[in-house]
Amino acid sequence: MNIPLWQYLVSMPLYIGILMILVELMRKHYKISAIFWILALFTFPLWDAQLDGWFRWVKTLSVLVPTALIVGLGRIAQHEKREGWWTFFRKDWVLWSLYGILGLNILEASLKDIALGNYFNAISGFILIVTIPLYKSKKSKRRGWLISKEKPGDLLVYTDPVWNFLYTTWNIAFVYAENPGFAASSLCILLAAELYPVLKKRPELYVTARVYTLAIHILIRATYDIFTPVMDSSAFENQTVVYYWGLVNMVLSAPYIFWYFRKRKKAPDLTDAL
Predict the structure, then answer these.
(1) Is pTM, for the whole model, over 0.85?
(2) Residue-level pLDDT at 262
(3) Terminal-residue alpha carbon distance, the chain
């Protein structure tokens, strides 16, 4: 589908702006956000018409279910210190699970990269998994992951700007290779996640912004394709670009892993290094 340049220039910034507004609302109104994402799971009868193949189904379930049940209920339980059955969501498994789910989502895409022959980009994905800040148990004085005691009970993850950038360029390279038609819309959610913590001057909100922008995007794609008519980017497909983009990502990621473990050795929980 040939789309005029002006349409990208209008639709993409508009989508980025809408995403950032929604992230702000979901951060500030965490109870409403939890209810919204739980109700969103009931749209599953619509998914079959939009999702094709194992990767789409796994991606959709591995994003929407944790956003609703772990992020949503976990923020309420831990921030408000709720008792009763809520104590289940006040335990360490909540943040360990989110740590694992982030790694799982990168792994899913990296395995797909391998299936597509994009080995360099897959290596970058594996490096990103290894360098996710670890979650420490409550016995640790400082942690890479936590749900804030301050209102509104934010999910805080102490990644650093270099990791965020490497994740962004790795992810968009993957989408461009796997389904170039959705590369433009996927770039929007990645840029929204990058810009939101910068504008808030709170880099620890990057993962929160990424969780909500990805969940919004996945929900839309699973229920109805609004992106193809307004920002289909399949015309930009180029396998040479795929190859060299993956190569550049690997070259950028390789020194980062050495920096990461060097800093981790000096500050095991990484918060001293950030």
Answers:
(1) yes
(2) 81
(3) 44
